[in-house]
UniProtKB/TrEMBL annotation:
This protein's record includes keyword Hydrolase: yes
Gene3D superfamilies in UniProt: 3.30.160.20
Composition skew (Basic residues), residue ranges: 102-127
GO terms classed as biological process: rescue of stalled ribosome
Name of the featured protein: Peptidyl-tRNA hydrolase
Segments forming domain Prokaryotic-type class I peptide chain release factors: 21-37
Taxonomic superkingdom: Bacteria
Annotated organism of origin: Endozoicomonas elysicola
Alphabetic keyword roster: Hydrolase
Ranges where the record places region Disordered: 102-137
Length: 137
């Protein structure tokens, strides 16, 4: 069971785990122990509220397939249990990141005073550069 937010919970039935051999260096157990975890989470078939489903399906992330399945591969740790916890934590972070509603930006114009300051600064800079030029006698 994974708690996403207050009252929003994902059950173990919604998440599918498969265990594979991790890539990279691993010592003696690298070819024997399947410590990496593949987490699969079907957004459409999950028990998430509709708001979360819509936001996740519209969210652009490489871990979300066209069919609406989140695939997370966790192989950071040496043990299966830690990789499983890591995958669940990353799933939670992904869901929370997708459901953040950003404030709408309002277009604004620069004030008259800021326009004047900008022009004055440009004039001062131009004057400095002209004084660097050659002097005619």
């Amino acid at each position: 069971m994974l708690e996403i937010a207050d009252g929003i919970i994902i059950t173990e039935d919604d998440i599918e785990f498969s265990y594979i051999r991790a890539q990279g260096a691993g010592g003696q157990n690298v070819n024997k122990v399947s410590s990496a975890v593949h987490l699969r989470f079907d957004i459409r078939a999950s028990s998430l509220p509709e708001f979360y489903k819509e936001r996740l399906l519209a969210f652009r992330d490489a871990r979300i397939t066209r069919e609406g399945i989140i695939i997370i591969k966790a192989q950071r740790f040496r043990t299966q249990e830690k990789n499983r916890e890591d995958a669940l934590l990353r799933l939670k972070e992904l869901i929370n990141k997708a459901t953040v509603v950003h404030k709408q930006r309002k277009a604004s114009r620069p004030t008259l005073a800021s326009k004047k300051r900008r022009v004055e600064q440009k004039k001062r800079r131009a004057q400095t550069k002209t004084l660097r030029g050659r002097i005619d006698h």
